Amino acid sequence: MNGTRAPDPGTQRTGVQGMDTLRDMWDSRPVRPRDDRKLAGVAAAVARRYELDPTLVRVGFVVAAITGPGLPLYLAGCAVLPDAGPPGAPPPARTGSASALSIALLTVAALLAIPMVTAADRLVATGVTVGLLVALHLTRGSRPGSRDAAVAPTPAVPWIASDGTVQTPAPAQAQVRAQAEPARTPPAWDPLGVAPFAWDLPEPGPEPATPAPPRSKLTPVTLAVALVVAGMVGVVALAAPGVLPASSVPGAALAVVGIGLLIGAFQRAGRWLIPFAVVLALVTGMTSLANDALGPDGWAVRGGFGPIEAAPATAAQLAPEYRRGTGAIDLDLTRIDLATGPGAEGPVRTRAEVGAGAISVRVPENADLVVRGSAGFGDVAVDGQSRAGQDASLMVTDPGPDGPGGRVLELDLRAEMGAVEVQRG
Fold first, then answer.
1. Count of CB atoms situated within 10 Å of the CB of 325
2. Using one digit for the tens of pLDDT, what is the confidence trace for 211-269?
3. How many angstroms separate the most distant Cα atoms in the chain?
4. Domain positions in the chain
5. I want to staple 271 with a disulfide (CB 3.0 to 4.6 A). Which of 35, 55, 185, 240 is the partner?
6. Is this structure's pTM higher than 0.70?
């Protein structure tokens, strides 16, 4: 009657479920084991909690570190996931005050996470990573085996005492039960042996060993399917030239191996697919670069092979373009007369392009220069100025030591991979 509106039950229930999920993730967080850790045991703890392959979880942390949130998440895991302790120690407590080290790790993680909140691309990667962790808990967090692994204590390891005897620590549960139960002694008068704990019975023998689980066939099956798919793509590429590039053959195999790795992440198998994925990724990248350079219209073959040497004496003898796919172009333009006169007006232009190699041009000492030099990867040097590295470019307009006068010499020089150099004299 006062105009207020009751909250939507559906919205309230969704919020409660979300809080329940976060609370369950916190209450059932795993301990960091000592027996299967590479750094601090965060990846091994997550793998045991959700029944995943530890190697694939470690690869996931590396990928997340490259995209952004991996390092802060790992530091946060070191802070909030309790350590299992030495072998034979009781399970660590999940409650209590935070240590100074945990507070320091959480502070560093928060500082590293600040750029990911302000950068749009890192924010998307962080949201996707956190969403995957929540989805993993919703789909695999309620398995009995995974919950038991989250709280299972580290197995006891025997040690040698000071008197030379071998001591084996009892599990924490047995120690607590032994302290809680008082010691019982057999009665003094028991002719019929009715006190069961007074019987001298032999100790039970060891339990039969659990048979090893069958080896997963994911790796050989994935490699076989990848080989078949790559062969089919190769047949199409050979039968119809130009339809598919050469890089599509290893790329198709890489796609199949990637699907196998995704399936193996949920089956705790397929770790041997990782080296094949790395090799196929390198081969795909190299094949793609080679296709761009050596294809039918690639820059490494466009214009032919070998050197070009030219020394035109007049502007009319200067070709409008010099091109080589692989080789060197050497132009000596010092003999060209750039003085203006009847029939000799306007700029003198030429262009030189090389795929892999070098371009060297020598111009008259007093020439009025307009040079546009560039290199996809290499060096560009024009009359004392230089640029180097990837996509190096240099634009120079220089009237020469005598100032403006005479015809302008315009040069457009390009090297995909190599060097460009222009000198006077």
1. 21
2. 766 777 888 888 889 988 888 888 887 887 767 777 888 888 988 988 888 888 777 77
3. 141
4. 13-151, 218-294, 308-424
5. 55
6. no
